[in-house]
Amino acid sequence: MKNSVYILKDRALLFVSGEDSQNFLQNLISNDINKVTDNSSCFASLLTPQGKFLYEFIIVKHKSGFFIDCEKSQSEEIFKQLHLYKIRSKVEILNLSNEFVVASFGYEKYLSINGSKDILGFTFKYREDPIILDPRNKHLGARLIINLEKLYLSLKKLELKDDKIENYYMQSHKLGIVPKNLNKLKNKLFGIECNFEELNGIDFKKGCYVGQENTARIKLKNKLSKRLFPIEIIKGKLLEDETIYNNDVEIGKVLINEEYPFALIKYLHEDFDKDSIFQSKNGSFKILIPEWLKI
What we know:
The protein is of the alpha+beta class. The protein contains 6 helices and 17 strands.
């Protein structure tokens, strides 16, 4: 529905500000913070020193600092992690989730709003609040970050109608982009295996950041042999961390087993055939390869 809007109540908003905020984030995140301006936002992640996935988020310029738009279930840990790295940096980190909310609406609707541009991550103000074309994939639509008190008036002015959040999750899963349960991925795969390069979440030209060395090595030495893919269950059920087989050969592992499942798959393995029906101990399923992933 063109005029559907999804109030993403499962998202949290942290705010990083202070004179060192730009350098502070630049030294930590997988993307280049210099891409984030009043007219541009970016997708990024925080990795372990070994390059394993910890957290992901969208970064949006706000006043003299940056909004971190993240999954609510990860927000407290991100908050603590940022404080851990803070040391003597002149930064302030706040959780503004009680004041601000994220609303998402479709790509077509976004293009119909005066001031929009068909550029991933493009950001402009609507009644002083940022609207962002999702920097990962335009088919995820746009995001409005807005004070709760102003939310419904702005939605009314934009002629947007509240829709079920599950429809947003389904669209995201169908696109091959994890909509929720990100904690189930923590420490289980490399950030680059999450398809962050294709989702515009890694900058290979920027300087050092946490996890940069392994990320760059996997890319430069062409060592990427596994990727995160969405699963379509045919029958049975999935269990977290269970092994996936094709012709009795181990081909991957289930990482997210709930409503919108994902698995880490050895997609270059000779026994991997994207059209196969794959098996686990308790179920059978198809592995979906997103169109935007040219492999």
